[in-house]
Amino acid sequence: MLWALILLPAICGLLVFLPFIGRASRVILVSASIAHLLMVTSIWLQVRGLMSAPLIALGLPDNSLDIGMTAAGGWLALDHLSLLFLSIISVLFLGASLYSLGYLGPERKRRIIDYRDELHLNNQPDAVFISCLLLFLSSTTLVTTARHMGIMWIAIETTTLATTPLIFFHRNARSLEAAWKYLLLCSVGIAMAMLGNFFLAVATARGGMEETGLLIPDLLAVAPGMSPNWLKAAWLLMLVGYGTKMGLAPMHSWLPDAHSEAPSPVSALLSGALLNCAFLAILRMLGILDASGMGDFGRHTLIGFGLLSILWAAMLMIPQTDYKRMLAYSSVEHMGILATGIGIGGLATSGSLFHAVNHSLTKGALFLVAGNILATFKTKNINDVRGLLRSAPVQGVLWVAGLLAITGAPPFGLFFSELQILRGAIQTGHWVVALLFLAGLALAFAAMLWALVRMAWGSPIEGTGPGTNHTHSVFSEAVPVVLLVAVMLLGLWMPGPLAEVIELATRGLR
Amino acid sequence: MQTILELLAICLILLNFRLLGASRLRSCVGAVAIQALALNLLPLLSSAGENWWIIAMMAGSTAIKVIVLPALVLRAIDRTKVVNEIEPLVGYTKSLIIGAAMLALCAFASRRLTVPLGGVDQILVPISLFTILTGAFLLVARRKAITQVLGFLVLENGVYLFGVTFAVSEPWLVQMGVLLDLMAAVFVMGIIIYHINREFDHIDIDRLSNLRDGR
User: Which pick of A137, A260, A301, B209 has the fewest CB atoms within 10 Å?
Assistant: First the structure.
């Protein structure tokens, strides 16, 4: 099953290059993502079966947290944490690939004119785009299932390589600049993480003992005897390295550029799936620190980076005039929230994992809506979009709902996950952290609401708005609707299986 | 054995200074390739170099790091016709002085990081750190995209130096994956450089500044 999850998208990604495939490549994309989601669903059903066992009532011992699905001699395995992130990726990917159908359609029909400098765009061929998307799905799946720090590193670097061509899809000056920054910064960041891996290997070789490999279960077993200095250095290197990929301030500078220049379905995937993968790598390393008894050191640094990201991003959102960049900074903010939540620990840990689910769905929906607005109004400038609710009612309502959701307004899931993180902070006596956290959220709320008011209400500017020749595909509106409704439902009612998986994943993190 | 090790170590330090002081891109590529070659010789010196698969790994890694990667960079140089790094952001003399300071810093810092295995190759810790810092410095102090790729490769070499010295036990599958990723990364970088050159008629990264916040 695990092999199928990883290999199916990769093989489909190669298939689309066959010369006779042509337009059928879009069918391949969608059917591969549906198959992926079906497989993930079947894993959920199996887990459900396991849970009904009386073991739950007794309290599971730590080593049975695995779902019991391994491959490649234990190098790949699925635990509840993996399952949670894998499900996020799978759902979001199906959404993005359905949306891409509508996106690729009009992009192909006629020669596309760049909205800003009026140059003709010379987009990448379909096959490259679809193949890279599928490769991205394959490599992110590998990240979630990897049980070896080296494999995890390889998978994360592969996600960088798969997404770079997606970012320079339009092949114009700005997307080239964004892709260059992204590739170089993330590669350098991830080289630091590699050094962290080596430091970790050295840390295991203490007192003349042989080095253990980088298999996570082995590392957890020998963690109490690791040399503290090397382990600390390894943690810092990995936090900086994977943190670059995750978009934690101050290493986030690639993120707004890449997110604003990439095609919208790609931005949705970057924000909702890619950042989470790097976060997962940091969580795995934190588990090792916990096992060695230095978890507190790790958590303090996480809180530091987390709060810095929240405040830094919130400050930069205030003067923002580009709505896609604003969403990108909001991603930095939310990655900060995740890091802070994990850093606080306790109740906030499960809040943080729940927040990851909420954030991915909401931000995915928002980037897709932003893509619709961009296609309709041909501008990314907040000041040039007016009266969205009147001129494009569906987009307007979605945009209002999405922005309210992402700022943590009550009926949506994000409100509850942020509240839980806050409660965790207060429960564990992190008063200053709670205060700064709230301040950051308030700033971000104000900034986004101000942009929302300018864009949604008022009367449309003459000569802008939907032209007669522009038609959206069904999916370009249906996908964000479904995602946002899901986030709202998550706020109103938490499904039992999800709660259980989050609970079990949290237990593995303490 | 120890003498050869020390010779290689000195060679690595000198190559870093060569990289800091050279303006011709082609000679920089040469220095990076020689550096990679020296790195790949290191495992032969330690006693662990008797397993057949370590030899095979090294052959593979030599092929990629010494031949394929420099060839990819040289191709990018040919296609963009950029020969020199003219007017770097930090001058060559200054770069060399900063390099010396970095070396001293690394020597100092590595005293804190003693190798648990008994200090066999302790001398390589500062050199590895110095190579990493040199790479990072080239990344920020030069303006041509190609020099940045070279900086990235030097940084990778530094990380790899650490790896070959201490973590030889890593399985071949992982090492292979790492090398393949590295190769693909440099390949994609080459493609982007080509497009940047065609789009802008230059590859000066500091002049790529369309994307910034607001206004």
Answer: B209
